[in-house]
Amino acid sequence: MTGASSGIGLALAEVIAEHGYDLVLTARRVDRLEQVAADLTARHGTDVLVIGQDLAAPGASDRIVAVLSERSLAIDLLVNNAGFGVPGSYASTTWAAQQHFLQVLVVAVSELTHRLLPQMIERRWGRIINVASLAGLLPGVAGHTLYAASKAFVIKFSESLALETLRHGIHVTATCPGFTLSEFHDVTGTREQVSKMPGFMWLDAKSVARASYDAVMAGIPVYVPGRVNRTIASMGRVLPRSLVWALMKRNATRFRRV
After folding, report:
1. What is the rounded distance in angstroms from the CA atom of residue 30 to the CA atom of residue 5?
2. Which residue in 95, 101, 135, 246 has a CA-CA distance of 20 to 30 Å to 86?
3. Quick check: is 2 in a domain?
4. CATH code where residue 79 lies
5. b/e string for 4-25 if b means 16 or more Cβ within 10 A?
6. What is the pLDDT of residues 95-133, one digit of tens each?
7. Active-site pick, 90, 147, 213, 223
């Protein structure tokens, strides 16, 4: 599991441990991962291996797979969750920041899945949760310019992979949460903006994690947690694109730093 030190990733680790799985957790913050590992082991008796890696660094996926191979560990349930945002307009940010973003949210998701999938096919069983976003189902808006685009990629990637691997006993789900109570907005510096959003728009990370786990076990390729979020996603499909885009444009500054 990537990005397991906080937020939805941490909640998914908890839910998966509750279902009796041993865990391999990877993230940049090794100290926090070790605290998470100790807590999960104490409460669930789960064996937890911590691999400290920054997925933005070249060769990070290679190093993760190498550790798994050295320990003869096979991954039954892969969770691609690591992510962050690059606030501001596209032109005002550095290419290095955008390149790191794409490496973590697009390349690492694709690479880790590609490297670990053959073992699942060989065993004829596997589950893959790719954490996307409601943003990937709606028109892109100003600010965090590549965020919606990257999540749309994850959704389409998951749909195709789900069709390819179903005959091998593998389920793939892109889970598409909306606003979720986590550290994400603190890290991106948009906490003040998003705090103005009404309470009914928010879900807690544990609810998102439980629903996402149930969705992948049920073989649902694209899942949107939360009734409000599902309503928004449905409106995005049935309303004229120009109208949805205009609504997104008008409200973007409420939760994005442009």
Report:
1. 8
2. 246
3. no
4. 3.40.50.720
5. bbbbbbbbbbbbbbeeebbbbb
6. 999 999 999 999 999 999 999 999 999 999 999 999 999
7. 147
